[in-house]
Amino acid sequence: MLKPRTAIRTLKEYHPPLGNREGLRLDFNENTAGCSPRVLQRLRELNSETLARYPERETGERVVAQHLNVSQEELLLTNGTDEAIHLVCETYLEPGDEAIVVVPTFAMYEIYAAQTGARVVSIPAGKNFEFPADAVLSAITGRTAFIAVANPNNPTGIFAEIPDLMKIVKAAPDAAVLIDEAYFEFSGESIVPRWREVPNLFVSRTFSKAYGMAGLRIGVLMGNREQMQWIRRASSPYNLNSVALACLPAALSDEDYIHNYVQQTLNGRRQLESELESWGVCFWPSRANFVLTYLGEKCKPFIGKMRERGILVRDRSSDYGCKDCVRITVGIREHNERLLTALREVFVEIGLAQKVAR
Description:
Layout (H helix, E strand, L loop, with lengths): L5 H4 L14 E2 L11 H9 L2 H5 L4 H12 L6 E4 L1 H13 L5 E6 L4 H8 L3 E6 L8 H7 L4 E7 L11 H10 L4 E5 L3 H4 L13 E6 L12 E5 L1 H10 L7 H12 L1 H24 L3 E3 L5 E5 L4 H10 L2 E2 L1 E2 L9 E5 L3 H17 L9
Helix pairs in contact: 2-11, 4-11, 5-6, 12-14
């Protein structure tokens, strides 16, 4: 009888809560306004000939390299950040290797690492979800072949300091260290291009969050040019579709749109954190486009009442250390105002009139 590999049979499944997502979607950290109007205009200009041709990635990579001020040989466009993670794992992990992941975090690090037959070593975050740099350093062994860090982290919004990350990269020269900067635009700090100091460092970015193009699936993986040659060997030459590649230059050209969206998001994040603080609700200061809050026994009632008002927020209770926690995305001004109005109503309705102890 045909059987999948053991690593696949024992793999954890990732089940995003899709289904009915009608309403204001503040549950997936998506751009709440959508992409730049220039992207929509570019879509209208596409014709049947564009779709009939195989996609040519090189032109898009040249534009992105110029935008990020790195060389074209130091990056690869990917089918979202997911493919970037997958390619690093497939290129550097062997069965029996060890992969270090700090939890809670983005689930796909563990999933893609485990697919290769590697053993995933989970390092719990520190107090208040602080990045546990010393614990990660202590976990590095001769079998460590992959280390993944989301910075800022999802779902906590916590930022790992760049010097701490560089210590880890240098302490594990035989391991591929991936720093996932999916929320870079909202934190303003980056480790790019420190791979020129240490060739085992890789950095991923996405155009799904600030750029509002999650449906087009565009990401970028960056690293040492010699190592990127091996990554390219593992990648399909046609991993991005022609529509995504055609829209990418338009998205990058509209810097005012991105700047405006990011500023509205940062203002919204401050307003949400201030509102939560005024209610005495526990939350973790975020460097991303969302805020993680702890609601205790009020968690599920809060989520349900917000949905009744047409606002979706994300229950993160299944993540390590996040029982009864809710993650709330922030976005443009009008959506943030609607969020805060509903939040106040729901807090009163569910009886959240005093501080929730944790």
